[in-house]
Amino acid sequence: MVQNFSKVHDVLETYRTAIYEKDVEKLLSLYASEIHIYDCWGSWESKGIPLWKATVSDWFNGLREGSVLLEVAFNDVVIEETSTLAFVHCAVTFTGIQEESGMQLQQMTNRFTYGLKKAKGTWVIVHEHSSLPIDFETGKGIFDLK
């Protein structure tokens, strides 16, 4: 799927809808083939589309099996961009909704940083880093937006 993302906000909106729709190809269309991701779930990092595709496919299959819709909300978005490079940092809240009942199952917020480049008139993500602050007393991640 080839899409043209003329604005950085187009990338964020497509990210949101691709996750809600559990559309692997739509989500992958946001990333450069040489994507480098540091993730706070599963593996420490992913390099390249094939590894990222496997991770996303497993994630979306798990959501399908549980009949879960995942709503994505971007908070405190800061975008710095030049004509060819962009840097985005924000808090991303993921809310799990039971498809049949519409009941909220769970919610968590991660910190995200995206590095994008513009090639042939379209923005693509070349680096993504998600993280959680750590509670020093328990050693566990803090999942609530504060």
Would you write up a description of this structure?
With 146 residues, the chain is of the alpha+beta class. It contains 3 helices and 6 strands, in the order ααββαββββ. A 6-stranded mixed beta sheet has the order 2-1-6-5-4-3, covered by helices on one side. A hairpin with a 3-residue loop joins strand 3 (68-81) and strand 4. The model has no long low-confidence stretch (mean pLDDT 91).
How do the strands and helices of this protein lay out in sequence?
Elements: H1 8-21, H2 24-28, E1 31-38, E2 45-47, H3 49-65, E3 68-81, E4 85-98, E5 104-119, E6 122-131
Parallel strand pairs: 1-6
Antiparallel strand pairs: 1-2, 3-4, 4-5, 5-6
The value of Rg in angstroms is: 15 Å
Specify the overall morphology: globular
Q: Main beta sheet, described?
A: 6 strands, mixed
Mind telling me which CATH architecture this is?
Answer: Roll
Name of the CATH first level: Alpha Beta
Low-confidence stretches: none
SS summary, helix count: 3
Quantity of strands, as a count: 6
Strand content: 35-45%
Estimate percent helicity: 10-25%
Number of domain units: 1
What oligomeric assembly is this protein in?
Answer: single chain
Average predicted local confidence, pLDDT: 91
Distance between the termini: 37 Å
From the helix content, strand content and strand pairing, which structural class follows? Answer: alpha+beta
* CATH topology call: Nuclear Transport Factor 2, Chain: A
Strand order of the largest sheet: 2-1-6-5-4-3
Q: What order do the helices and strands follow? A: HHEEHEEEE
